[in-house]
């Protein structure tokens, strides 16, 4: 849902950079996030998502640029930031050898939950995670979805106004993923700002706004709907045919076709002229001995947008290298 532009900005970075030797993991990113917004960082593994989150949480010093979280500087006021945020790392962040109840009690102490609030917060986490009757269960023995909900509960025990989630649903089943996102919605409706990294395209649709990051650079920002509208002026054809992986290689050589990607058991083909391209696809596949079952124009998905943006970025980088050479 759209976030009121009148809401205050609670995360703001400008030209943020992080180098590891000669490698630029984050290459001068700039963006802002408003209170109560679900802001998604979408990108492949190694794009710089986790590195950016660690800088925003005060866990890693930037090598360039500036940023503020909850009004505090990410370089000089990291300890102040840590009291105002919740953080759930990409790896499971709880202690497997402790029970559910022991993990909650441990993090209550870490976050210095007032004595008169501990019981209420403990009860809230147990109910939210669906763990009533399981407080004595060893955390290592919990199903993946329960573990993730418990980790989320422990991350917000101290009721922080900003929550950073780094690939929070990685490795859990689709049903658990949906249940987890329902909890995120509830937190956002209560005014919590949620900054989430993901490489799941369907999860990206749940965000109020997205920043697409690739090779350490933000290559597009906007709502999911705006990204589809602004970055997919071309037509997307869904093609069902035999041996789609081989067909993709064949179609990539056709001049009428801008991009081709495997999508499920078929192909998504990006073209400029629908009629001419459809004829070209049928002709090329027919001549190549492929059986075409269906060619249909479809509404672009975020995955189509993502692939298109990555392709454009790679083409631009290649052109720059040729100029320099």
Q: What count of helical segments does DSSP give?
A: 11
What is the rounded Rg? 23 Å
Question: What structural category arises from helix and sheet content?
Answer: alpha/beta
Global shape: globular
Instruction: Describe the strand arrangement of the main beta sheet, using strand numbers.
Output: 6-7-8-3-9-10
Strand content: 25-35%
Helix residue percentage: 25-40%
Mean pLDDT: 89
The span between the termini is 46 Å
What does this structure look like?
It is a single chain. This protein is of the alpha/beta class and 325 residues long. The protein contains eleven helices and 14 strands. It has a six-stranded mixed sheet with strand order 6-7-8-3-9-10, with helices on both faces. Helix 6 links the parallel strand 7 and strand 8 (193-198). Helix 3 runs parallel beside helix 5 (144-155). It is globular. The termini are far apart. The relative contact order is 0.12. The mean pLDDT is 89.
List its salient traits.
325 residues, alpha/beta, six-stranded mixed beta sheet, four-stranded antiparallel beta sheet
Question: Could you give the topology of this structure?
Answer:
Blueprint: E1 9-20, E2 23-34, E3 38-42, H1 49-56, E4 64-69, E5 72-73, H2 78-82, E6 85-88, H3 100-110, H4 115-128, H5 144-155, E7 162-166, H6 174-189, E8 193-198, H7 201-204, E9 209-214, E10 217-222, H8 224-231, E11 235-241, H9 244-251, E12 257-263, E13 266-271, H10 274-287, E14 292-298, H11 302-324
Parallel strand pairs: 3-8, 3-9, 6-7, 7-8
Antiparallel strand pairs: 1-2, 1-4, 4-5, 9-10, 11-13, 11-14, 12-13
Helix pairs in contact: 3-4, 3-5, 4-5, 5-6, 8-11
């Amino acid at each position: 849902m759209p976030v009121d532009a009148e809401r205050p900005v609670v995360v703001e970075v400008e030209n943020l950079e992080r180098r590891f030797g000669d490698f630029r993991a984050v290459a001068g990113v700039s963006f802002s996030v408003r209170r109560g917004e679900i802001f998604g960082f979408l990108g492949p593994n190694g794009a710089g998502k986790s590195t950016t989150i660690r800088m925003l949480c005060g866990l890693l010093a930037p090598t360039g640029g500036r940023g503020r979280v909850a009004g505090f500087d990410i370089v000089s006021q990291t300890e102040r930031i840590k009291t105002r945020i919740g953080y759930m790392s990409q790896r499971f962040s709880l202690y497997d050898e402790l029970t559910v109840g022991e993990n909650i009690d441990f993090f209550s102490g870490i976050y210095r939950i007032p004595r008169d609030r501990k019981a209420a917060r403990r009860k809230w986490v147990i109910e939210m995670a669906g763990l009533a009757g399981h407080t004595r269960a060893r955390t290592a023995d919990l199903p993946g979805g329960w573990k993730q909900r418990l980790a989320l509960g422990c991350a917000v025990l101290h009721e922080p106004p900003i929550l950073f989630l780094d690939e929070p649903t990685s490795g859990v089943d689709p049903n658990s993923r949906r249940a987890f996102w329902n909890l995120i919605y509830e937190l956002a409706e209560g005014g919590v700002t949620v900054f989430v990294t993901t490489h799941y395209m369907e999860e990206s649709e749940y965000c109020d706004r997205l920043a697409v990051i690739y090779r350490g650079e933000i290559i597009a920002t906007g709502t999911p709907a705006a990204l589809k509208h602004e970055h997919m002026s071309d037509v997307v054809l869904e093609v069902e045919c035999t041996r789609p992986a081989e067909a993709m290689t064949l179609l990539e050589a056709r001049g009428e076709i801008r991009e081709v990607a495997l999508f499920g058991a078929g192909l998504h083909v990006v073209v400029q002229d629908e009629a001419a391209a459809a004829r070209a696809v049928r002709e090329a596949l027919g001549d190549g001995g492929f059986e075409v079952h269906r060619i249909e124009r479809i509404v672009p998905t975020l995955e189509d947008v993502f692939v298109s943006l990555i392709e454009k970025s790679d083409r631009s980088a290649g052109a720059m290298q040729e100029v320099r050479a």
